[in-house]
Amino acid sequence: MKAMLFAAGLGSRLKPFTDNHPKALAVVNGKTLLERNIRYLQRFGIDEVIVNVHHFADQILKVLDKYDGWGSKITISDETDEILETGGGLLKAAWYFKDEKQFIVMNVDMLTSLDLGEMIRAHQQEKPLATLAVTQRKTARYFLFDPDGALCGWRNVQTGEEKPANLSTTNEDYELLQPKAFSGIQIISPAIFSLIKQTGKFSLVDVYLDLMQSKRINSFDHSHDILIDVGKPENVVRAAEYFN
Predict the structure, then answer these.
(1) pLDDT means over runs of 10, the chain (244 residues)
(2) According to the CATH classification, is domain 2-240 in 1.25.40.10?
């Protein structure tokens, strides 16, 4: 199985570090986020990884070359001309996954104790188009799932916006929908590439919200695990308490 690490982002929340470095090279207890997530994937037998780059891409390339990918075979998806966001970035890398039955995609700035093997087994058993790792934690934006764990919508609790816009009137089980916070980790079938209608720069969230009408997209709740978004300076310190 192969994986993709999203490492192209500007890392605006991690300033001032990202004024001169890519967020992927933020350090937690002497190891960069890039190294930690490459080694995390290795624990589950995944040692072929494509990494997209944009912000200070040369620094990421130098580190990968210096440490020989920490033992993994690393391929670069070059977005230095234009950052494509999660959906566009994945679509650009579609060729890399053409022979896979499923693949992993995760944000480089998320650190977790999630048992990825357990999530893979759940995905292989249910065979949805995608399985999204989620937790029950406070955030501004939530995916909404029905009682069976299938994606039905999205909600911004700060603005009240929902997608689809008529969700409350068209979904018979609206009151039963469960809000879950996305962990930035997903298992996807390559069948998704022939279904994506968007082009250029776009978010995977919008892809899922489009495709949930006709394809099953599952949740995998791992609320019992450690999950830290290291996109904020204070969380770099917090992550150091959990990840040696």
Answers:
(1) 97 94 97 98 98 98 98 98 97 97 98 98 98 96 97 95 89 91 98 97 97 97 97 92 95
(2) no
